[in-house]
Amino acid sequence: MNTVISSTMADGFRARLHALIDRSDMNQASFARMAGVDRSTLSQLLSAEGPRMPRADTLVALATSCRVSIDWLLGLTPREEIGLEIIDSMLQIQSHTRSPIDERFVGWLREAEGYRVRTVPESFPDFLKTEDVLKFEYQGSSFNTVGSSVEAMAARLAVMRRPDSELEVCASIQAITTMAKAEGKWAGLSKTARCNQLAYLIELYRELYPSLRIYFYTLVETYSNPFTVFGPKRVALFLGTSYLVLNGVDHIRLFSKRFDDLIKLAVVQPHQIEETLKDILSEIE
Q: Tens of pLDDT along 232-250?
């Protein structure tokens, strides 16, 4: 299943995909067979009804069959040429389990201990969420059947409490306000759960700052797909059902710069987060 994400990146991807099909002189059915992509998947990716991005395996199939770079397909570079070393040694595809317990992600965090980790989450980091909010968000997933989920979140918090830990989070302020107002995917989340979540987040941030630094940008001005830079080790780009993992130095620098650009656009700086969260909480109490 494809991931619904920002129209900016998805529109750019769709335009590039259209260009590849036009260049091939094939109809969509023939192009799908050539690329090894399901025809219905290709139709969904080409549709303008709702921004969609491909799964990581589809992305690699398109790049390999059309001899273009994944970076170009994603709009990360104007250079179209493929770099075989990216597919062979600098890029990996890792599946994502829809659960706050993701052993791969936790493993990458352990490998990056002592380095600065920078993340742009899909909403806000799971380890900052209360048990009630986690259960609501992951209802129907393995969270409800795995008893160690809360313990896993506690373990990640323990890592953050170490003196050498450093985590920067850049999230949209709408990720917090939609939860606070029970809008979008949070519709049906009780007022008590929302208030408790904000209070818990305020308390944790007060404890962990400045080892934990949060920035809020606004979707009115910019958008970013979820990704995490694990120090100098790797970048994991979240594509919904899988991670696109980039190990090359140039990619790590590229996404570090992207994070720096998001920080420059932030409307709430780390020292303002606690007061901002208090203001949001006061609006719903």
A: 989 998 876 678 888 878 7
| Distance of alpha carbon 233 from alpha carbon 105, whole angstroms | 13
Residue 284: which pLDDT band, with cuts at 50, 70 and 90?
Answer: very high
* Fold observed for domain 103-284: Endonuclease; Chain A (3.30.870)
Q: What is the pLDDT of residues 130-189, one digit of tens each?
A: 989 988 988 766 554 445 566 667 777 777 777 778 999 999 999 999 999 999 999 999
- Cβ atoms of residues 180 and 189 within 8 Å: no
Q: Please check whether residue 101 is in contact with residue 146, taking contact to mean a CB–CB distance below 8 angstroms.
A: yes
State the greatest distance between any 2 C-alpha atoms of the chain, in Å, as a whole number.
60
Rg (CA), the chain: 20
Q: What was the pLDDT predicted at 84? A: 44
Architecture of domain 3-82 in CATH?
A: Orthogonal Bundle (1.10)
Tally: H helices and E strands in the chain: 13, 9
Domain ranges of the chain: 3-82, 103-284
Q: Does the N-terminal peptide bond of residue 210 adopt cis geometry, omega within 30 degrees of 0? A: yes
Question: Which of 59, 70, 93 is CA-nearest to residue 243?
Answer: 93
d(CA 23, CA 127): 46
